[in-house]
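note to self: dont lose this again. the chain is below, predicted strucutre after it. 259 aa total, dont forget to put it in the shared folder this time
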Amino acid sequence: MSRHKRKPRFKKLRSMYIWHRYIGISTALLVIILALTGLMLNHTGALKLDSRFINNDWLLDHYGIQAPASIRSYQAGEHWLSQWGERLYLDQTTLGASHEKLLGVLAYGEMLVAALDSEVWLLTPGGELIEKLGGNEGIPAGMSAIGLTDEGHVAVMAAHGVYTADRDLVIWQDAPDAITVWVDSAELPAALYQTLLEKYRGHGLSLERVILDLHSGRLFGEYGIYLMDAAAVLMLFLALSGSWIWGIRHVRNKLRKKP
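---
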């Protein structure tokens, strides 16, 4: 009689155990992904995830990281200054980012002089920034071009006409009659373009973002989020079912020990 009463309970335990086992096997990979990515995100600073970048073409294409539609590039002697989006490059050296539009660059003595909308940058041929000149240093407002006069002075086309600088680029004055050769844009050499394209795309996707999207499932689109949500629900089920199985077995073992 006692065996007949315990049989349904045993079937329930066996059924729960089977569900627990199969769900555990099915979600093992997702649990490993969640655990590993979670650990990595907890140590972003130590692992320098925010300063490491992805160069994989498939991932870059997946995130839609492409070259900007318009690339501004200018040649100054043997050097090329180009602007990709907001990033500025001197040859293959990254100069930094600027929201202003690059207007041109020219060689001036032992340095390069680059003009943006409201600033003039003085650079070494190696890509080091010497100084940024703005309105406080006398740079005229509304610049649209940079060039060199027939007397060797740096000139800019500004909102109120042509201005030229003295030899030290300290004093800027109105010079409407200055004969100036303005800098024109030019197309980057193919090899340099390809190198900068890889550099530009490679610095657009951090490892931290990929791991974060993998952890949340966003890496796989909308359905990836639901997949990770389902994994979280199944992990909760595993925790509850495992506790339930342990509890039932614990009670059974106690009953068996009773005389």
